[in-house]
Give the backbone structure.
Amino acid sequence: MIRRLLTFAVLAGLLVAATVWLADRPGSVTLRWEGWRVDTTVPVLVLAMLALMIAVNALLRLAGAVVGGPGRFLAGRRAKRTQAGYRALSDGMAALAAGDSRQARKLAKRADRLLADSSLTALLSAQVHSGADAERHYQRLAERPETAVLGLKGLTDLALKQGDKAKALELAARGWSLGGTTDGLAATLFDLQAGAGQWIEADSTLTEAKRRKLLSGADLLHRQALVALARADQAERDGNAAAALDFAQTAHRADPILVPAAVKAAAALHRAGKTRKAESVLAATWEAVAHPDLIEAALALAPKESPLDRVKRVEKLVRLNPDGACGHAALAEVALAAKLWGQARTHLEKAVELRPSAGLYILLARLEREEKGDEAAARDWLMKAAGAGAEPAWTCQVCAKPADSWAIACPACGAVDSLVWR
Ligand SMILES: [Zn+2]
């Protein structure tokens, strides 16, 4: 600013000096051209020349604006179009996030029309379409290095939707090998590898997912426990008892509240002659989760025990977590077998109060019959049993079918880690 003012002051000074100098030296100029004659003074001539220069400059500028006009006009239109395209793209993403798929589809179409680079709209387009259309858009993303993992994850999910697990596994593994950190890719790949029985690969996926900070905490430990459990099974099938024990204990340590891990570790320890340790494994898990499989596993540690010793064994375990229906039901059953009628009745009544079930009503019928020979009362309980709800069981969260026993993959639909006790 100051520099401009200085320049202006210097120029104005020079102009004033020049004007004064010219005015002091009037002189005359005569122009003759084609029969014309102009007589004037030097200052007037200089002023006329200045005016001419300014006029020519203005004319040149005007001509420039007219000639360069269409280009600038088109560039402006293009910028406006791109801007509208970006707006449609971001609005479409927002509509998708809000669950308005119709609006998202409309905006995706508009963004596709307005933006020259179709790879920008591929993700939105893929998400608002289904089937072959979505596949085409994800394919386009998969072809560009910057968006390859995103595209492969989308193609994996599509393959899963179509029930093609082999294709999904191949696509997920490709995305993973590119160093993908997309949300859910690690878990999807792990589940697919586990479902295909590729436990060693599943194990390295977990190690890598931990390194990429995609899985951590209880989730990671639970998956590590599943891997160890599967490898314990494999070692058992191979007749390698030492490895089976090792893997089973690893599984229990990784996830101490995973009931099947405690059951397997206890059985393996028992086979290795470490029954005390087996008892403490079951006790540790029972303290957190009262589950009938743990009672069964505890009783299996001494199959030849007398009925009274079985009562003592179950009492010792239940004492650590005594208030649930499961503990009362277990105590009632062993007390009934030991003919401890009063104890059996107390625990049955408590268990029925907490969670009535057909199994408990059948035990009550047995009690009436064995203790008092009361067939009428027994029949009443059996009538109640017929109308009671289903017993809790390992049930698949995906296909809702019950399984006879826990398994890593649902025996009905093959979903990994889907069985819950309910
Ligand atoms: Zn299932």
Notes: The beta strands are 29-33, 36-40, 394-396, 402-403, 419-421. The chain has 19 helices and five strands. The mean pLDDT is 89. Residues 396, 398-399, 401, 410, 412-413, 415, 418 surround zinc ion (CB under 6 Å).
